[in-house]
């Protein structure tokens, strides 16, 4: 990729400014506050866009800092670049109300879509974080960020496993962690449902157990009553004859008259016939006879009414109420209670079985454990693979960065050691020297070598190098070496500077360049 032209329509302090770019080294010279950093930011904004912050952060974000001084609603520009042998132009409107981006191929007029990822494809997958940590160096920002380390992990894992770098390791691990969280959430919800089901069953079981306990007591009471009644029947049956005799003695015979009464009736009739004068004696005797006959007849009819005697009434009053219940009804009640008790016991046993099943590890939880184990193994394997392959990548990166650093320092430092989390040190005469013991200029040269080597290792396509006052701490000798390296190993370099050292040294070295005054 190479940048052909910048057209700053309205961005920061610039309005309708065109800047041509050529192959090789391009020097963009300007004094302080001339707009070098503005152009540097403009290039990134054209390639990756600019999002405005929210709330208080919006006051100091890049969008607000570079909002045009005049006509802020006309916040736009365009950039022409070469990629794959074709010329493309991207036009962006940064205005907060009319923000849009258009991408077109000038060779054949094909309209492409930034939203669908066509620009990212043309940039070879170079993301904004990688852009800022490799080919683009801002003022006093030569140190790389953590994003470069993450990209090394991604690249190492993807390149050595798939042969490309289309898979994002961090995104993959994040996806695995998200799945793990979802799985844990499902397990938690399942446990909550299981606990709620357990509480419901336990409550229902307590109600059923109470019913069983009550029915058992009722069944025992009825059984005791039946036993008592049956024993009483046997006892009453054994004494039935004696009891009948005693009752017969208490109750006179209903169908017989007492002989004394009959004799008395006969004596009265005879006396009346003998002592009463005739003919009235016949009439009185007949009347007395009829009266005695009616009395005898009425006494013979009393037994049919079955009236209870006083002793019988007394016996009924002292008899308990439960003994008055018919025996058949009591047996039916006992059978009914036993049947209901059996049903309740079966229901209670079923509830206990359900509780036992809840205590057992269900198939769902076994499946959860399998998935959780699979996710954990995948994370461990990815991290293990990434670590192993990253060590291999570090060897390549160490070699490439060491070569660049050796050329810049004229062989003073021939070995750069890049370790985990991009901790770096150099070897000098067999002695290991950490960055903290080196000068600021040397540290910046080491980071420069790291950035350039990372661009070579991580990207197959070459990109322009964009440097904003990067050589402030370089001495003249190492600056010359750096410029010679850029001229020999980079197709295009954009150097923003407020000094004239770069131009003078390029002239001394005889290296062609294009100078643009800002």
- Enumerate how many helices there are, as a single number: 16
Task: Give the overall form.
Answer: rod-shaped
* Intertermini distance: 24 Å
* Helix share bin: 55-70%
Number of strands: 14
Compressed to H and E, one letter per element, the order equals EEEHHEEEEHHEHHHHHHHHHEEEHEHEHE
Arrangement of strands in the largest sheet: 2-1-4-5-6-7
Mean pLDDT across all amino acids: 81
Describe the biggest sheet?
Answer: 6 strands, antiparallel
β-strand percent reads 5-15%
In terms of structural class, how would the helical and strand content be classed? alpha/beta
Which ranges are low-confidence, i.e. pLDDT below 50, for 5 or more consecutive residues?
159-167, 250-255
Radius of gyration of CA atoms, rounded to a whole number: 58 Å
Write the layout of secondary structure elements.
Elements: E1 2-11, E2 14-20, E3 24-29, H1 36-48, H2 62-65, E4 76-83, E5 86-93, E6 100-105, E7 111-112, H3 118-122, H4 128-133, E8 136-137, H5 146-162, H6 169-238, H7 240-250, H8 259-275, H9 280-301, H10 310-318, H11 321-324, H12 327-359, H13 363-408, E9 415-418, E10 424-428, E11 431-434, H14 440-458, E12 465-468, H15 476-489, E13 492-497, H16 501-509, E14 513-517
